[in-house]
Amino acid sequence: MRVKHISKYIHHQAILSDIDFDALTGNIIGIVGRNGAGKTTLLRTMAGILKPTHGDVLIDGFSIFKKPGLKEQIIFVPDSSEALKNYSTKELIYLYKHIYPKFDEEYMHSLMHRFRLEPISKIGNYSKGQKALFILIAAFSTNAKYILLDEPTDGLDVIIKKQVLQILVEEVSQKDIAVIISSHRLDELEYMVNDVILIKDGRVDSHYELDIMKLEYKKAQLAFEESMPEIIKDKVYLLDQTGRVYTVLIDKSDHSTEELIKSHSPLLYEELSLSLEDYFIAKLGGSDDV
Ligand SMILES: Nc1ncnc2c1ncn2[C@@H]1O[C@H](COP(=O)(O)OP(=O)(O)OP(=O)(O)O)[C@@H](O)[C@H]1O
């Protein structure tokens, strides 16, 4: 899928501005941004629910807005299952079978069995975690090629999150699909995605492949006899300070920083593993969310 220079105005206000990237199959792509950054609007546009003011969404080179049949290849799972709560599992399967000709009912039942989900007369009666799993399982059973998930793990406990992760990873490794997940929780995305698109004020602030990103920065703990020399402070990004122990990010492309640190004979200089969250905190200036 190609998201081609999308802009979206609502009531003359720019919600998305010139968003441009490829969502290739075989990838789990994270759309990360603060509340209100435009993530849901972007996913809804990629699903063809909202029409962009400018730009287009292409599958195999064709616009999903000009060739609506292409939408069979996309499923959008909203962050709330409100709209589905009055359906029974049977009715939802019936509905999906009509929208998605490749819907695999047998597969759906096998996944439900595996994750101990009994058929139910009202999806709204599942627990929050069961609902999330059910909707995810239904989405993957559609055999759509592009699975768009809006905050799929928000408010779920750690066991359910692990199950969600398990389904995602298995599906992407076994089928020729792309999963696009929005979240404001970087720590949750870290173990799921291999590609991250950071949205800020409706724009792509940055687009990173995780492995490459980790090559750019090094996280380290430093301590000096006195406080950290100003000349070093100017060159690193400070993540945390506890007494005289500093946790910093060092830009690996500037080799002089490490030499400078060593020349000041630190009492402690230890490399730590870098998380996605550290990186974005550094990029965005610090917050609990992105
Ligand atoms: N139909 C609409 N009418 C007016 N403003 C809208 C509409 N839809 C979205 N917006 C505005 O667009 C901006 C982006 O909203 P969106 O829901 O896409 O953000 P988000 O990144 O998904 O946020 P969150 O993480 O809080 O769900 C917000 O300022 C929102 O108020």
From TrEMBL:
<protein>
    <submittedName>
        <fullName>ABC transporter ATP-binding protein</fullName>
    </submittedName>
</protein>
<dbReference type="InterPro" id="IPR027417">
    <property type="entry name" value="P-loop_NTPase"/>
</dbReference>
<dbReference type="GO" id="GO:0016887">
    <property type="term" value="F:ATP hydrolysis activity"/>
</dbReference>
<dbReference type="InterPro" id="IPR003593">
    <property type="entry name" value="AAA+_ATPase"/>
</dbReference>
<feature type="domain" description="ABC transporter">
    <location>
        <begin position="1"/>
        <end position="226"/>
    </location>
</feature>
<keyword id="KW-0547">Nucleotide-binding</keyword>
<dbReference type="InterPro" id="IPR003439">
    <property type="entry name" value="ABC_transporter-like_ATP-bd"/>
</dbReference>
<dbReference type="InterPro" id="IPR017871">
    <property type="entry name" value="ABC_transporter-like_CS"/>
</dbReference>
<keyword id="KW-0067">ATP-binding</keyword>
<dbReference type="Pfam" id="PF00005">
    <property type="entry name" value="ABC_tran"/>
</dbReference>
<dbReference type="GO" id="GO:0005524">
    <property type="term" value="F:ATP binding"/>
</dbReference>
